[in-house]
Design brief:
By secondary structure, this protein is of the alpha/beta class. The chain contains nine helices and eleven strands. It has two domains: 2-71 and 169-249, D-Maltodextrin-Binding Protein, domain 2; 78-165, Periplasmic binding protein-like II (D-Maltodextrin-Binding Protein, domain 2). The protein has helices at residues 12-19, 34-42, 101-114, 140-145, 157-165, 181-196, 198-209, 213-222, 229-249; strands at residues 2-6, 28-32, 48-52, 62-71, 78-82, 93-96, 120-123, 135-139, 153-156, 169-176, 223-226. Helix 1 crosses helix 6 and helix 3 (101-114) crosses helix 9 (229-249).
């Protein structure tokens, strides 16, 4: 079975046990950014994948309701960097990473419904300096490695969502074309192994990223991999706003 997985450090607790051989598997794992994983899944190249939660909103896909990647009050790896206050973004140009539809949709929800702003969203052109933008969105390991930029305020979108709604935010989920209880059990086993061997996960994340072990321990403490009622309520609330935005754009 071909399994897609986002290539960021926050996905390691699901995949590292397989990669280390702690959990024997015949599955082939394909690692890429969330947008690419979603595309491969939609083309039926992948039978399952951990990817942007907005992909799960499409009809006909099965999800694991209890497993994913969420954040409560902060996440550190989904950041808007802005020169202007968030209440003064109307007319400002915001460069958007192409890596994740969920993070882009979250930013749009916050801007339109909570900050009451109408910025100009555009794809981030990495051939020009980031300073060419009034604001820009970065996610994943790149955001972790750049907590701040001179002359820009950093806004953690998970923090902003929680402060405005009181709910955690679900960024990613496991999706399938059809139910696969045996692989779900493997995922549960993998996550339990990582929870019991977190120093090993941190060490591998440090090797890959060169980020400090202290930061990585803190980062993994912020990531919620087991989704409970609070996360599901947050996801339901986000989907309502998501649907409204897409209805306006239709």
């Amino acid at each position: 079975m071909k399994i897609g997985c986002i290539e960021y450090l926050n996905a390691l607790p699901f995949t590292l046990p397989f990669q280390l051989g702690e959990i024997p598997t015949t599955h082939q794992f394909i690692f890429a950014g969330p947008t690419e994983i979603s595309s491969l899944f939609q083309k039926n190249i992948l039978e399952a994948g951990l990817t942007s939660v907005t992909t799960s909103f499409e009809k006909g896909y099965y999800t694991t309701p209890s497993l994913g990647i969420a954040a409560d009050k902060e996440i550190l790896s989904v950041n808007l960097y802005t020169r202007a206050p968030k209440e003064s973004l109307t007319g400002k140009t915001i460069g958007l990473t192409s890596q994740s539809s969920t993070s882009i949709s979250l930013l749009q929800v916050l801007a339109y419904f909570f900050w009451k702003q109408e910025p100009l969203f555009t794809a981030l052109d990495r051939t020009v300096p980031l300073s060419a933008y009034d604001a820009f969105l970065l996610i994943g390991d790149e955001a972790l490695q750049h907590p701040s930029f001179p002359e820009y305020e950093t806004i953690d979108l998970a923090t902003e969502w929680h402060s405005l709604t009181g709910h955690p935010f679900v960024f990613a989920t496991w999706i399938f074309h059809s139910p696969n209880p045996s692989f779900e059990e493997e995922l549960e086993t993998a996550l339990t192994w990582s929870e019991e061997n977190l120093p090993t996960v941190v060490e591998e994340a440090h090797r890959r990223s060169h980020l400090s072990r202290e930061l990585l321990f803190h980062y993994y403490s912020l990531c919620r991999y087991r989704l409970g009622e609070e996360e599901k309520l947050g996801l339901q609330k986000f989907k309502k706003y998501y649907d409204q935005i897409h209805a306006l754009c239709a």
